[in-house]
Amino acid sequence: METEFKNMWDDVWNETEQAALLEKLKQEVRFANTAKLILTALSGNPEGATKKELAAKARCRSTRFRDTLSQLLEQKKIYKSKIGKKGMPFKYRLQPWI
Asked: What tens digit of pLDDT does each residue of 72-85 get?
């Protein structure tokens, strides 16, 4: 009986898969938290905000911030201005520019 249960448990419990699942869940939670901070910073701001301003509000690692910003752009939850140059950086906002 004990060996049957152990064999059955071994089939269900795969340590590698569990670790990968937990890592994926951690990344999703981190993305959601960072995205919430970025979207909150942009809400009620029709002029938009620069990447530097958003990074200051997000208060997270730069890699996570850049990845989250890219994903939000891909998902079309935020939009980036078409013009950005030295002294006039790109601006991000919730509504597309017309």
From this structure: 999 999 999 988 78
| Yes or no: domain 16-93 corresponds to CATH 1.10.10.10 | yes
* Residues 6-63: tens digit of each pLDDT: 565 566 667 888 888 899 999 999 999 999 999 999 998 888 999 999 999 888 899 9
Residues written for the chain: 98
3-state SS, the chain, equals: CHHHHHHHHHHHCCHHHHHHHHHHHHHHHHHHHHHHHHHHHHCCCCCCEEHHHHHHHHCCCHHHHHHHHHHHHHCCCCEECCCCECCECCEEECCCCC
Show me where the domains of the chain are located.
16-93
Alpha-carbon span 86 to 98, nearest angstrom: 23
